[in-house]
Amino acid sequence: MNILVTNDDGILAPGLALLADVCRAVATVTVVAPDREQSATSHALTLHRPVRPMRRPDGAFQVDGTPTDCVMLALEALMPERPDYVFSGVNHGANMGEDVLYSGTVAAAMEAVALGVPGIGISFAGHQPETLATYRALLVDLVRRITAAGLPSDTLLNINLPRVPADEVKGVRATKLGSRFFSGSLARMKDPWGKEIFWIGGGTITWTGDADSDHAAVGDGYVSVTPLHMDLTNYSLLETVRGWSLGG
Questions:
Q1: pLDDT tens-digit map of 36-61
Q2: Rounded to whole angstroms, what are the CA distances from 57 to 7, 33, 60, 61?
Q3: In whole angstroms, what is the distance from residue 90 CA to residue 128 CA?
Q4: What pTM did the predictor assign?
């Protein structure tokens, strides 16, 4: 079995090293990751300049592009055989609710699915590398279960680990996406010449969702596993839209 490992935190991120090590317990692993931080790049492709993969001494590839670039390059050019799975992460910071629309971690898994390979995004709700390191055995077990079970061709898994050490995890929950609202995430500033600028990020997050939502599970100390698919159609509105008469 062959597994591609990528991320959006960059080639030097501890979470990437952990995930690659975990996946080597069950398969042959190829690492193709951005050469720098690419968080919140979503499903962006680099279209207006060449993209350059560089082979590192450890055999991994670093790419001066986005996570989506990395997956496309790996599958179309860098790997001698298509992988059986693409694992993305472990991201430093959770990807829950609407985060899946912004996340480069989840986008890499989505690109895998778009190219016909099962994709799995994994994120850690904390920011302590020493806490994340405790998850090795749990992640090995999880990767074994995922690769043994298989995934539908149009589905990816979005997995979030709680911020507690692995020995405090209460279990694994199948979840749906919650919803979050940012407030105060736009900071107004002035540059050294007095011109107005804005800094996007931070702020206060308000979560909503019931007990089956991803943020509720992670907040309660569970590993959240959310199956996602590429079809964003709102089927309940199809009949309404069919009834519109435009231009008549």
A1: 999 989 999 999 999 999 999 999 99
A2: 19, 14, 7, 9
A3: 12
A4: 0.93
The position carrying tokens 């107005």 is: 196
213: CB partners within 8 A, 6+ apart: 97, 175, 176, 177, 178, 179, 207
Architecture of domain 2-178+211-231: 3-Layer(aba) Sandwich (3.40)
Q: What is the DSSP string of 87-147?
A: EEEEEES---TTHHHH-HHHHHHHHHHHTTS-EEEEEESS--HHHHGGGHHHHHHHHHHHH
pLDDT band at residue 248 using 50, 70 and 90 as cut-offs:
low
Gap between the Cα atoms of 113 and 142, Å rounded: 19
**Domain residue ranges in the chain:** 2-178+211-231
Distance separating alpha carbons of residues 217 and 222, to the nearest angstrom: 5
